[in-house]
Design a protein that fits this description.
There is one protein chain. The chain is of the alpha+beta class. The chain has 5 helices and 4 strands; from the N terminus they run E-E-H-H-H-H-E-E-H. It has a two-stranded antiparallel ribbon. Helix 3 crosses helix 5. The longest helix is centred in the C-terminal third of the chain and has 37 residues. The protein is rod-shaped, with a radius of gyration of 34 Å. The two termini are 40 Å apart. The N terminus is likely disordered.
Length: 167
């Protein structure tokens, strides 16, 4: 069970300090909510009389809230475009080096006449238009992700408008 905050006199005013084990974020949130409720209770009409939130402003606020779902679609689209570039490139060449019949007791190349050093370079080439088709597919997937992100934005705007009209 949490202890109550301690009250310490400080000159003319009393100062209330939160318990040292509580986080300051929780105390700050409670203070902010208390201030909002006190302000709304003292002058409820003055708080809302100057500004009323319009439909377009509500939609702008909702879309400007940086919804993580919309950001996720944009990030996935960017990743797919980057992958499209890498998928359309030839695979890396492979270098192969080997020793055959190498004497391990003296490490002398001249000891055995059958000692060989083999060096090879290998490059694979995909068949047909595989690279260009893979790139086109990845770019289409990126366009689909961007469209899904746009759809999510439209859904947020629709939900905001519906909620605003219900109020």
């Amino acid at each position: 069970m949490a202890e109550k905050p301690s009250v310490k006199p400080s000159g003319k005013n009393l100062r209330i300090e939160p318990h040292p084990m509580r986080s300051n974020g929780l105390a700050a949130r409670r203070l902010a909510f208390a201030a909002i409720f006190v302000f709304a209770a003292v002058e409820p009409e003055a708080a809302w009389a100057d500004e009323q939130l319009g439909l377009n402003e509500a939609v702008a606020i909702a879309l400007g809230a940086n919804d993580p779902t919309v950001e996720r679609y944009e990030e996935r689209a960017a990743a797919l475009e980057d992958r499209a570039v890498s998928d359309s490139q030839l695979p890396d060449p492979q270098l192969r080096v080997g020793l055959t019949n190498f004497p391990v007791d003296t490490f002398d190349f001249e000891q055995e006449p059958m000692t060989q050093v083999q060096v090879g370079l290998r490059q694979s080439f995909p068949r047909g238009r595989t690279l260009s088709k893979t790139r086109a597919r990845r770019e289409a997937e990126a366009a689909g992700e961007r469209a899904a992100g746009r759809l999510q934005e439209l859904q947020i705007a629709l939900d905001t408008r519906s909620t605003w009209l219900e109020l």
